[in-house]
Amino acid sequence: MSENTAAHADMVLTGGSVVTVDDGFTVASAVAITGDRITAVGDDDRIRALAGPSTEVVDLAGRTVLPGINDAHLHLAMFGLAGFSVDLNGVDSVRALNDALTDGPVGPGGSEWLIGEGWREANIPEFDADVPGPHRSLIDAVTADRPTVLHHASRHSVLVNTAALRIAGVTRDTPDPAGGRIVRDASGEPTGLFLEGAKGLITQYVPDYSERERLAAIESAMHRLNALGITSVTDPIVWPELLRDYTTLRRDDRMTVRVNALLHWDWPSPASTSERLETALGFAGLSTGLGDDWLRIGGAKLFADGVPTQCTAWLHDPYPSSGDHGHLITAGDDDEARYEELLRMIELAHRNRLQVQVHVTGDRAADAAADGIVRALKADPWPDARHALIHGTLLSEDSYALLAEHGISVITSSLMKSHSGASMTRAIGADRWARAFPAGALLAAGVHVADSSDAPITHPDWLRGIATFAGAAPGPFSDVPPDLRLSREQAIRLWTTAGAYLENAEKRKGTISPGALADLVVLDGDFLGADDTALQGLAPTLTVVGGRVVHSA
User: What CDD domains does this protein map onto (predicted)?
Assistant: First the structure.
């Protein structure tokens, strides 16, 4: 092992299994840290010799050390702010829903608004039925005059009560906005369900959280992630106010998770237009790489389509229930116009040297986004662009070679397999869902793949994600076919080196190597030796970011 031993180390960890995740997947027994860098990796005797009188010595007692976990798609601020809302993830009936909403917490900024997050139609029989389906009448009695917004687990739709409709002034005569839909009943009245870009008709009236609330929520979320061994995240939706919040936390040295920010100027609407994007980019003056190892501009987030559970993903083959294919959520009156708009937006971000990461869940949307990236690269070569498709839930198998040829990465969502199976099989059928997030096939084709939690859509349990892609996913509808499964080595790379590559940071983090940032996690068991079921029970006992202990059990 190589080492840099100019002075005594600040911390040494010995007597364990140090899984470096370097090119050779080397396993050592000890590691030394000086300042914010790893200075040596090797056997116990060599590393112990680097300890001085003031060195912190950690006896691993056989435990495993891994590089700090890099979640390639995690909504950090949303994960923190979800703590202010009613948690609806476990709700399985309208009665349970109403019980949860009764006496709900004070709304943002001390307002009367009631916010809930995490409901799934497949879990609530009354919502899963054709009539009434998710309908405001089912929550009006308990919410009364208190305006209420309930975010779907996917965050691609909201259900609101009648009081919220009144405040927003939405009636039967309100037209659908570009990239969104107001769901209406047989008589034309709004049901209270708003899809995609239509959410903004309501959410624009919800007061903002105060700066103090926002900063505290983000800081708390970072500590919760540290306890899971997570040291870096890509936040895929960073609007201007949130970027200022992250800058404040960085300036005040309050960050314990490294943040790679993807800019999005129109949130809470996923939809945007090329005109708005061009205006934003003309004034912003930002490009990929601005910042430092704690907070950097990673690129721009674009949305091509919605999600299969809301039938808003764009598919080649139709949805079984409706015969519809969905469509892109970009502006335009027909598929061709929306397709060209998506390609214009990709080219705009690319030309401004912002890495493009495009939300795609339907196979037809993924093909369209890949077309746009290829067109942009051919017109204006940028060798280190490292553009990516986010989720890649359903991908055309004949697209894999194109993705590999042009260096287009895919950021999968392994944890969706066990969180969304019931809703997804209902929407697209069991066969299509079984082959969702085809990480194994993508890697075999030479496509760069990183994995992610998409928290707060799921809980960021990366060990469960690794077990899932290895073929040991818990729960129904979550099996991964044998030809799509990953080895343990492949799976941990998706949560470490792969995310670092997308940030152009693979020389600085993602491995336990001399000179790399001292980001690591210690697990209480044998990561390599545990079977896939036992793997999910391992727990982080120590997390270090930049040489600083940020979690200790």
Answer: YtcJ_like
Joined together, the tokens standing for residue 37 give 């860098």
Enumerate the domain spans of the chain.
Answer: 85-204, 211-537
The partner residues of 359 in beta bridges, in order of sequence, read: 303, 390
User: Two tokens at 260?
Assistant: 């790679």
Quickly count: other Cβ atoms within 10 Å of residue 133's Cβ.
Answer: 17
Q: Cα torsion for 395, 401, 402, 404, to the nearest 10°?
A: 100
Least confident of 61-70, 179-188, 381-390, 519-528: 179-188
Report the topology of domain 85-204.
Answer: Diaminopimelate Epimerase; Chain A, domain 1 (3.10.310)
Q: In the structure encoding, which two tokens stand for residue 520, read together?
A: 């690591």
Question: What are 28's two structure tokens?
Answer: 């050592």
Q: Per-residue pLDDT averaged across 191-196, rounded?
A: 93
Q: How many whole angstroms separate alpha carbon 499 and alpha carbon 503? A: 7
Model pLDDT, residue 2: 45
* Cβ atoms of residues 322 and 316 within 8 Å: no
Given pLDDT bands bounded at 50, 70 and 90, which one contains residue 548?
very high
CATH of 211-537, one of 3.20.20.140, 3.60.15.10, 3.40.190.10, 3.20.20.240: 3.20.20.140
User: Strand pairing partners for 548?
Assistant: 545
| pTM across the whole model | 0.92
CA 29 to chain CA mean position, Å: 33
Structure tokens at 325: 């294919």
Rounded average pLDDT over 480-499: 96
Nearest to 241 by CA among 263, 260, 219, 216: 263
The pLDDT > 70 percentage for the chain reads: 99
Phi first, then psi: what are they for 496, rounded to 5°? Answer: -135, -85
